[in-house]
Amino acid sequence: MVINSNINNVKTKTIGEIFSKDPKIICRHVDVFYGDKQAIKDVSIDISSREIISFIGPSGCGKSTFLRCLNRMNDTIDTCKVKGTILLDKDDIYDEKIDVVPLRAKIGMVFQKPNPFPKSIYENVAYGPRIHGLSSSKEELDFIVENSLKDSGLWQEVKDRLNSPGTGLSGGQQQRLCIARAIAVSPEIILMDEPCSALDPIATAKIEELINQLGKNYSIVIVTHSMQQAARISQRTAYFHLGELIEVGETKKIFTRPKDKQTEAYISGRIG
Amino acid sequence: MNEYSLLIILLLISTLWFYFGNKTALSLKKKQLKLNSLPHYYGIYVALYSFIPALFSYLLILVFDGILFSNLIIEFVPKEILNSPDFNKIIVLAQIDNAVRGIYFGEQPDWVTIASNQMIEWNYHSLILNFFCSISLALGIGYLGFKNINEEFRSRNSVEKIIISLLGLSSIIAILTTIGIVFSVIFESLRFFAIIPASEFLFGLIWNPQFEGAERAGSGQEGLATYGSVPLFVGTFLISLIALCVSVPIGLFSAVYLSEYANKKERSIFKPLLEILAGIPTVVYGFFAALTVAPLMRNGGSLIGLDVASESALAAGFVMGIMIIPFISSLSDDVINAVPQSLRDAGYGLGSTKNEVITNVIIPAALPGIIASIILAVSRAIGETMIVVMAAGLAANLSFNPLDAVTTVTAQIVTILVGDQEFESAKTLSAFALALTLIVITLILNFYALHVVKKYREQYE
Questions:
Q1: Would you list the domain boundaries of chain A?
Q2: Same domain assignment for residues B318 and B403
């Protein structure tokens, strides 16, 4: 591709290492507008295969908006416009030829508030495989459901009541059900938008453990308000402020030796 | 000086009490006393305290003096009129009442003039009494309330209590009205069932109320008039079913289009237009059905060799279906909009198309509300009269064929009660029996549908 030759030749204000040797997603000069208001300003970053990267920053800094660009969830908002380039495996996801349906199957998403469908636990997990035709028989579907629930650590708790409603589970269980639902369509990347903000500490610990497990097989992008959480689970951390990507780097470095003053101020709790 | 000026005086008095209450509370506050409530609550308290009892006495006197006077005035009617065979109390009272208002028809008999003068005098006394009672109550009880004001008095809680009892009173009025209607229907129906056995009414297959039931009961003659209500109920359900077949798909699909596909501009045009349908009077639908749709269907039917009656269940049901579309579309649109965005996000996040999100996520989540809207539409369809009277005819055929002329319960009730009727005959009373049965059936339907919705909810939420 033409862009490929100069893809790593980017002028950016961002401090730190935005490039990756094994990029899964490449974002270059991404701007996002809500009507006239610019929510994201010239963000360039790579997301590697099988890495866990967390986006941190004060409320309203655009980290969730940027996350939702990666699987084109912003399409559902009429006033939202995205400019710039986002490549998934070197294909521009905002190209007119790209169908958003398989794209979203490839990039799963877990939301801030657990949002299981008002259906049974089994139907929640089976929903994705069904609409994408991933199974040809009931046995195969059962297998996918069981494996997804096992991968999300929920199987032992719900195997005897797969037909009871998913909304009847506790908050943490619901969120793990949503993760199971997302991984049932075998995505390559999972986007998580503050997945633990509505959960208690014990449920949060379980989800974090699960994210660590999943990081071995998927690229995970997680937006979080908890810096401890970012420090615990992610290999890289990106700090956003007022729509700009201020600093990216290894999590350890960001939290111990941030190069940017704003990053340091946020991490030490002075802004946010 | 009349009743209305009295009402205004009462309002003025309570406004004054509000002012005094408020002022006293403010003056307490100025003395650095810590008031229990905000000052205006003391004002409202005194105002309500003076106004409500006065209003009650005002209404009481207004209602009961009329009843009392109409009984007393009969004394002034001459003996020969009272004893004559065509004496009618209501007409005589109306005659006097007209004279009181200064309306005369031709020559006025002397006794009417005397009676009306007497009535005017009584009315005057009653008004004086009303003025005296209401105003002294407003002032006296208002003063008692005013005396209550001190810094520890909890006027906010008292106002709350008064408001709660006013709200409760309003709901009791609504409930009592319903109970009253049901009981009046029940009592008249019992009189009907005393003449015609309930089993014949409920299971009889022929509806033919032309002949007087009393005549038949008296003469011992059998089978001249028959009151079998089955054809009417079959007709009602046939027409309602056709109406639902038209309105449920169209209403639901347009609701889905409006809430999920239409952009803001289309929505702002289509939704009001659709709701205009609900504002068209049913009589307009009626002649639309009778003059446009029914002939169209008959001609269309004859083209393909079908024999369609000129007044057919199909025409009435079709137009009725059009009429109830806005009920279904508007309510369903609301419940579909109420489905949380997070569920849509979940669907889209898994790579569903818009259509998949609608059929697999939104409609199931909104189903209880959608069913509720359909229940409402059904009760509308069952109760609808005008369209049926005009388009489906009055022939009580027992038929399941939508191309035949049928009739419905409500249409029959109208034909029975239109015009001069004597209230003793089985024919007239049968209207109440029909109404009672209809109420019971709609109630059962509603209960059953609510039960279904509840069951569904338990399953999913």
A1: 2-267
A2: yes
**Do B351 and A73 lie within an 8 Å CB cutoff?**
no
Is residue B436, in this structure, part of any structural domain at all? yes
Residue type, A24: K
Same domain, B121 and B247: no
Rg (CA), chain B: 31
Q: How far from the centroid of its chain's Cα atoms is residue B412's Cα?
A: 20
Residue (of B123, B100, B87) closest to B108 by Cα position: B100
Tokens (6 digits) for B74: 């009969």
The answer on B104 and B230 residing in a single domain is no
| Domain shared by B233 and B115, yes or no | no
Q: Tokens for B366?
A: 């909104």
Q: Choose one of B136, B153, B170: the last residue of a domain.
A: B153
- Domain residues for the domain of B75 are 3-153
The gap from C-alpha B225 to its chain's centroid, in whole angstroms, comes to 32
A166 touches chain B (CB under 8 A): no
- CATH number of the domain to which B383 belongs: 1.10.3720.10
Straight-line distance from the first to the last Cα atom of chain A, in angstroms, rounded to the nearest whole number: 40
Q: What are the residue ranges of helices labelled H in B210-312?
A: 213-219, 230-256, 264-279, 282-288, 294-303
Q: B176-182 contacts: CB < 8 A, separation 24 or more?
A: B182/B439
Residues on chain B touching A221 (C-beta within 8 angstroms): none
Predicted interface score ipTM higher than 0.85 = yes
A232 touches chain B (CB under 8 A): no
Q: Where on the phi/psi map is residue B200: left (φ > 0), alpha (ψ -120 to 50), or beta?
A: alpha
In this prediction, the residues of chain B whose per-residue pLDDT falls under 50 are 213-221, 460-461
Residues A43, A245: contact at Cβ < 8 Å? yes
pLDDT tens for each residue of B178-237? 999 999 999 989 988 988 888 888 888 888 876 554 444 444 445 567 888 898 999 999
Provide the β-strand partners of residue A240.
A245
For B242-267, how does the pLDDT look when each residue is reduced to its tens digit (9 = 90+)?
A: 999 999 999 999 999 999 898 889 88
- Residue B190 belongs to some domain of the structure: no
* Closest CA in chain A for residue B341: A115
Which residues of A are less than 8 Å from B343 in CB distance? Answer: 115, 117-118
Residue in B135, B153, B8 with CA at minimum distance from that of residue B61: B135
CA angle, corner A101, sides to A97 and A102, nearest 5? 80
Same domain for B141 and B239, yes or no, is: no
> H-type helices in B74-212, by residue range?
79-83, 89-100, 110-147, 155-195, 198-203
- Residue A247 has which token pair? 């600093």
CB within 8 Å: A109 and B461: no
Please tell me whether residues B144 and B234 are part of one structural domain: no
Domain identity same for B310 and B437? yes
Domain A2-267: state its class.
alpha beta
- How many domains does the structure of chain B reveal? 2
pLDDT recorded at residue B100: 81
Give B-chain residues touching A118 at CB under 8 angstroms: 343, 364-365, 460-461
Distance CA A135, CA B210 (A): 68
Question: Is residue B136 located within the same domain as residue B280?
Answer: no
3-state secondary structure of B385: coil
Which residue type occupies A200? Answer: D
| Residue B207 falls inside a structural domain | no
